[in-house]
Design brief:
Elements lengths: L9 H19 L5 H8 L3 H7 L3 H12 L3 H9 L6 H26 L10 H16 L10 H15 L2 H4 L6 H12 L5
């Protein structure tokens, strides 16, 4: 017997449906069915149409959600400093790889019509910068560059290193990115 989802307010039901739809879109593309979505959400198919006019509207909102920076920012803000600089940078690189990989997969599998949804870029840039600085500041004397510059290089390598078209299928790992960046920005000797 399929478990039934709890009753939710319409905006919460929309969010829950979007959340379960994105992985299905990554697996099946735009051909995902309302039956698959309903089963994943634990609801009847009719429930989908109480909060979305069409399946396409739900799929578009799920695709748009992949471009939303808020979940990524919250994950970075929730990180705690690690014992070493290498562990901290590797963990940050892993989060970036996951984010970029999801965005590339959505674009590749489902396509995207138009520009990603516009968000308050100034706000999220500041939040990410603050989180990065908080995490790297304890290691500042180990670095020849400010934390923001170190993270700029991590971001550049995570972006290009997680794109299968750029890497010709040889994706970079978080540990490789961390080693490349830190080997070039760590203070040498006393």
């Amino acid at each position: 017997m399929t478990r039934r989802a709890p009753a939710l307010a319409p905006e919460d039901r929309r969010a829950a449906l979007v959340e379960v739809t994105l992985p299905l879109v990554l697996e099946h593309g735009r051909a995902v069915t309302t039956a698959q979505i309903a089963e994943a959400a634990g609801v009847a198919q009719g429930t989908i149409f109480r909060v979305f006019a069409t399946k396409e509207e739900l799929v578009e909102e799920a695709i748009d959600s992949a471009f939303d920076m808020d979940a990524y920012i919250r994950a970075v803000e929730a990180l705690q400093p690690r014992r070493t600089l290498d562990e901290t940078v590797t963990e940050l690189a892993q989060l970036m790889i996951q984010r970029f990989s999801q965005v590339f997969a959505v674009i590749s599998i489902a396509g995207h019509k138009g520009s990603p949804p516009r968000q308050n870029a100034e706000d999220w840039v500041m939040r990410i910068s603050t989180a990065h600085t908080r995490l790297l500041e304890p290691f500042a004397d180990e670095l020849t560059l400010p934390p923001g510059e170190v993270m700029r290089f991590v971001r550049l390598l995570a972006f290009s290193g997680s794109n299968p078209h750029i890497t010709e299928g040889h994706l970079l790992t978080a540990a490789e990115i961390s080693a490349i960046v830190l080997d070039g920005s760590r203070r040498k000797g006393p």
